[in-house]
Specification:
heterodimer, A: mainly alpha, 8 helices, 2 strands, B: 197 residues, mainly alpha, 9 helices, 76% helix, globular
Chain lengths: 219, 197
């Protein structure tokens, strides 16, 4: 029991890291990682939604009919996202402005729906809570790492603290192109460390695609 | 149509297709961008389906927002309402298409389930509300966002078809090289900012 709990929690951090190993939720990872602070807060917001929705979906897993499960999950997730969004608007208005539409877009973040579908729908609330925490932490660490690299290379600062002052830094790293470049390099590094080829996910693996019905694209 | 409307149309469409390209600048719809760009054919099919869904989604959500949410003071339910309305509407169209125009369904239909609740589609809806577009402006915005997606994905698919024939370093194979390719494509699109900005 204790071992299993620890395992469910820790798998999301390294072994099944949602960003680097499972390659889920690319959109927010690339979009908000311009500074370390934005990335960290985005990770935190996603973690809160992930933990709460995992627990609720796990509690409701026997009540939700198989056929309408995805719309039901999306409704639960959207409810929590709205709560987080309203809280952020009230207490952290500046951050809310910086993250913009990427906060409401947590609803369609693949990590959250994928965990609901693959884990919370099959396991009890305690394990789902730990799974959500671990996956959320893994996502937060990954996105913060990308944020730190981009902020440092692009402006010479880390978490807003200026480290390099007199040398002009290549600002391309805080631009959209830098996000693709940094993530590509990190993925290659991960691939070298794990000796595995990072495949591009086919759209048929996306949890979203089972919303109306299961049909495979010809890709 | 007077000169100002025409100017606005040009401004919205070029701005959305080239300057603020949905995929390469806003990072919306990265999953289908990477997932369906292996072959040029499927990239074109997906792109057309995205244009179609984005235009419809942005019209439908604009109406939902104006006639359902705002009069009742329910703006905070935007995210939830939009996602349900989009998913429901797209499914309705899918059924309609299957019945009425089977050839069209064959080309676009298979991509529809993949994109109904995609972040790019919800993104279009949320951004057009945020920009306070009226009905026809949001329709143009949706269509342009879709065209921008088509453009980026088709160019990317073309590059990736060539990339398959090249000798890529072992650990860069697959996703890493695709992301680095996207980085250069994004840099190229950055150039458009200079033209219109």
């Amino acid at each position: 029991m204790k071992n299993r709990s620890l395992q469910e929690f820790s798998k999301g951090i390294l072994k099944e890291n949602p960003t680097f190993i499972l390659v889920l939720g690319m959109c927010p990872t690339l979009a908000v990682s311009t500074t370390a602070e934005n990335s960290f807060m985005m990770g935190l917001a996603a973690t809160i939604v992930l933990v709460l929705s995992n627990v609720i979906i796990s509690l409701l897993r026997k009540l939700i009919p198989e056929k309408v499960r995805i719309p039901a999950y999306i409704t639960v997730i959207a409810g929590f996202v709205t709560i987080v969004q309203l809280l952020m608007k009230a207490y952290l208005p500046e951050l809310n402005k910086a993250l913009g539409i990427y906060i409401p877009l947590i609803v369609v973040n693949c990590i959250i729906l994928a965990r609901a579908e693959a884990f919370a729908a099959k396991n009890n609330p305690w394990y789902s809570l730990l799974d959500g925490l671990g996956m959320g932490l893994g996502f937060t660490l990954a996105i913060t790492l990308i944020g730190i690299i981009r902020e440092f290379l692009g402006s010479g600062a880390v978490f807003g603290l200026q480290i390099i002052k007199n040398i002009p830094m290549p600002s391309v790293f805080v631009m959209p192109a830098g996000a693709f470049l940094v993530l590509g390099m990190l993925m290659a590094l991960i691939s070298a460390l794990t000796h595995k080829k990072t495949e591009i996910k086919d759209c048929s693996e996306c949890p979203m695609q089972c919303l109306p019905k299961k049909e495979k694209g010809d890709n | 149509m007077n000169g100002d409307t025409f100017k606005l149309i040009i401004y919205i469409s070029f701005g959305t297709i080239l300057m603020n390209n949905f995929v390469l600048t806003n990072f919306l719809g990265i999953c289908p961008f990477l997932g369906v760009s292996k072959k040029l054919n499927s990239a074109v099919g997906m792109g057309l389906a995205v244009i179609f869904v984005m235009t419809i989604a942005s019209i439908v959500t604009n109406l939902t927002n104006r006639y359902l949410l705002v009069p009742n003071g329910l703006e905070y339910l935007q995210t939830l309402a939009f996602i349900l309305v989009i998913a429901g509407f797209v499914q309705l169209i899918e059924l309609f298409m299957k019945k009425v125009t089977p050839p069209l369904y064959k080309t676009l239909g298979i991509y529809l389930p993949l994109i109904t609740t995609n972040c790019a589609i919800l993104g279009v809806a949320l951004l057009s509300v945020q920009n306070e577009y009226n009905l026809w402006q949001s329709a143009i915005y949706g269509a342009s966002a879709g065209i921008g997606f088509l453009l980026a994905t088709v160019i990317f698919a073309g590059i990736r078809e060539r990339l398959d024939l090249n000798d890529v370093p072992k650990y860069f194979k697959g996703l890493p090289i695709a992301l680095i390719t996207a980085a250069f494509l994004s840099m190229a699109f950055l150039g458009f900012k200079g033209i219109f900005g």
